[in-house]
Request: fold
Amino acid sequence: MTKRIVSIDILRGLAVLQMIFWQIFDFFSRVDIYTSDSPYFVSMFNMPINGIGLALFAFASGASLYISVIGRLERKIRIRNIVFHSIKRYGGYIMLSLVFTTYVFGFEIFYVWKEAVQGIGFAALICAILILFCKSKWFFAILGVVFALVQPFLRALLENDFIAINYPLEPASLGLVSGLVSLLLNSTIRGFFSLTHTLPLLLFGVVLASILFGSGKKRVMGTSLFIGLIMIFSALIMHLSFNRIDVYMWSPSYQIGFIGFSFLLFVLIEYLLQRYGEGRIADFLSLFGKTAIIAYLFHFVVIYKPLSIFNAESLLGQPMSFLLTVISVAVIYYSCKVWLLNKKGFFLKIRKLFGMN
Reply:
């Protein structure tokens, strides 16, 4: 059961493809998908069209994380070694984000915890440690709901003059201790991809994976369908009554709603795989799922950064922007395919270069 699960790869592939497609379109087009340009901005949910991908990516990451940790436990790897591996891997994501974000956007974006890789990396590290000490899907589900509901109140506690002056959100001329405290607050509560924002999504990905481990396919689909419908219904009630869905504020209704959407999308993917089997579309999406980080970094470093350097962003009309986006996605796909075929050799050369054999 510890082998790769095609439906999870497809789910992650859909998430990263949806994000990079619309972001690349935004790089080229005069249309701004992040403010008020319909239909790219969904005003009803205060959400850009690629906002769906944020939740899907975090949810799928949680499912993959559970499969990875349980697989190591089944191979009788010591807990301390799994902890060390998790720190090295997911701490490595944070360090990768530091270098990548500083180069592409500037250090401030990293400092305010506004980049996806650092947020997913930190939440995955915490999630991995939780999995080692508790296997109950009920624990992860309850913890996920609690985090989703209380995170706005935790954020509100930090909105006072003392915090604003001594530990501001933005980088400031502070001492080392003050700067580290500010960074800690950003990474846990204040930042767009803070722990309280991303962890609930990963925790419910863990719930899905734990159901996959403990049930047959039909029961998994039935349970996932039930959870998805309950979460979607709850989010809509919240949205229409007291807590409007808002991606930018990571409202509880947004988190709960898109957790439900993720479960329903998983059910649809599993149904289509069982009915029609794997085909070219499944292969296309699963490859993006297997190389999600590479695809995500590629579209910023190779497309966004050069456009930014030469002041060539947001200059084109929609038809040409769509055409260039499709071409860009094709280039990224084949680049990821080459990477997947050659990554073992690449890492072997790196190990030899640094004398790690």
